[in-house]
Design goal:
Layout (H helix, E strand, L loop, with lengths): L1 H4 L5 E5 H15 L4 E3 L1 H5 L3 H10 L4 E4 L2 H9 L6 E3 L8 H6 L3 E4 L2 H14 L3 E8 L7 E2 L4 H9 L3 E7 L12 H19 L5 E5 L1 H6 L7 E2 L24 E6 L2 E5 L17 E6 L16 E4 L2 E6 L7 E6 L9 E8 L2 E3 L1 H7 L4 H7 L6 E4 L2
Parallel strand pairs: 1-19, 2-3, 3-4, 4-5, 5-6, 6-7, 6-8, 8-9, 9-10
Antiparallel strand pairs: 1-11, 11-17, 12-13, 13-16, 14-15, 14-17, 15-16, 17-18
Helix pairs in contact: 8-9, 11-12
Bound molecules: pyridoxal-5'-phosphate.
């Protein structure tokens, strides 16, 4: 299978140097340790190669969503501390501890289950407490977290490494929600001081917090999308200089003249007003390229920005060169990235497809081979 896949003209090229530079730029700006977020196949960039490179660059902490992502990293020989951010069931606690993964503890009940699993294994669990300051996802509400914090401080089987919360609106610099969440988080953390307990590492800022809310940086920051050089919101002010690390490339596989009025692709949603030249590109929604780009998206061929015409299919779509346009089989096609002076950013695709950059990146799936440059 892998021999066949490597023949595909469609590929993702990841610039490892860009990732390392972005990590350095973020670290340099915030001046506190960085937890590099690697969930969802490192935002589509490839979990293991990205983790290996960032580990070699001295990354001090990783974050993933699921136990399985953490185990995959350990099996690949990654030794950097890894926090599993997502909610877990009690039955998963043992697996986390055995694989030397740090756990998110998001209620007293879960704390008890983690303690029981740690005791059964005779090995302390390293935990981060999750406080809910306004996301209403997982975590104990900040106003009622005192008993939770007391139970964690008193725990014999949990080593308390961190305390954290998650920002709901940090991609919007004008939102009042972030200041409110920060205030609630500080009030929750003050309870450690009241108890005379050592303060764990306090972390709160995602990419939006890093870009727009310096007060939220605290003891550690958790960049995801910004690490990959993409803004959390297309309108976000790039207050830290990062660059995109991922290109999505393909090649023309077919050329034809389509006569006036002859519709192109499923549903016959578009037909040329005059005879035109159409090329076919060999990827589609089955690779994670959004079908929402039907009749809306663009690609770069020979330095020109050209429109997608008709519906994006599972494995192919068509592009209009215009009546006089030229392109040949094997010509390079840029779907995300730069060609000459023209560029297509993830943020552009997200706007055209009515979604966010996160979804564009994380949907690019395993069917597309990844190549790594630099590093
Ligand atoms: C995904 C995630 C992040 C990273 O978010 P970005 O907006 O990509 O920076 C940080 N913290 C938690 C808890 C997350 O789930």
């Amino acid at each position: 299978m892998s021999d066949l896949v490597s023949q595909r003209p469609t590929r993702i090229v990841v610039d490892l140097d860009a990732l390392a530079d972005n990590l350095r730029a973020i670290r340099g700006r915030v001046g506190v340790p960085v937890m590099a977020i690697l969930k969802a196949n490192a935002y589509g960039h490839g979990l293991i190669p990205v983790a290996r490179h960032l580990q070699a660059q001295g990354a001090g902490q990783f974050g993933v969503a699921f136990v399985e992502e953490g185990i995959a990293l350990r099996r690949a020989g990654i030794t950097v501390p890894i926090l599993v951010l997502g909610g877990i069931l009690g039955r998963q606690a043992g697996q986390l501890i055995e694989h030397d993964l740090e756990l998110t503890v998001s209620s007293i009940d879960k704390l008890r289950k983690v303690e029981a699993a740690a005791q059964a294994l005779g090995r302390k669990a390293v935990v981060h407490l999750k406080i809910d300051t306004g996301m209403e996802r997982i975590g104990v509400h900040s106003e009622t977290c005192a008993p939770f914090i007391e139970a964690a401080v008193a725990s014999r089987w949990c080593m308390l490494k961190g305390v954290y919360s998650h920002l709901a609106c940090a991609d919007d610099p004008g939102s009042a929600m972030t200041a409110l969440q920060l205030e609630r988080f500080r009030a929750a953390c003050a309870h450690f001081t009241r108890l005379g307990a050592p303060m764990p590492i306090r972390h709160l800022a995602n990419s939006g917090g890093i870009l727009h809310f310096p007060d939220s940086w605290l003891d550690m920051v958790r960049p995801g999308i910004l690490l990959y050089g993409v803004l959390p919101d297309p309108q976000a002010r790039p207050t830290i200089e990062v660059r995109p690390a991922l290109e999505l490339l393909s090649q023309v596989v077919y050329f034809k003249v389509v006569h006036a009025g002859r519709p192109v692709s499923y549903g016959a949603t578009w037909a040329p007003p005059a005879d035109t030249r159409i090329v076919t590109i060999p990827l589609g929604y089955g690779d994670g390229y959004p079908r929402a780009l039907s009749n809306r998206g663009q690609v770069l061929i020979r330095g020109r920005r050209l429109p997608i015409v008709g519906r994006v299919c599972m494995d192919q779509f068509m592009v209009d060169l215009g009546p006089d346009g030229t392109a040949y089989n094997g010509d390079d096609v840029v779907l995300i990235g730069q060609q000459g002076d023209a560029a297509i950013r993830v943020e552009d695709l997200a706007l055209q497809a009515d979604t966010i950059g996160y979804e564009i990146l994380t949907r690019l799936n395993e069917r597309i081979p990844r190549e790594y440059r630099g590093g």
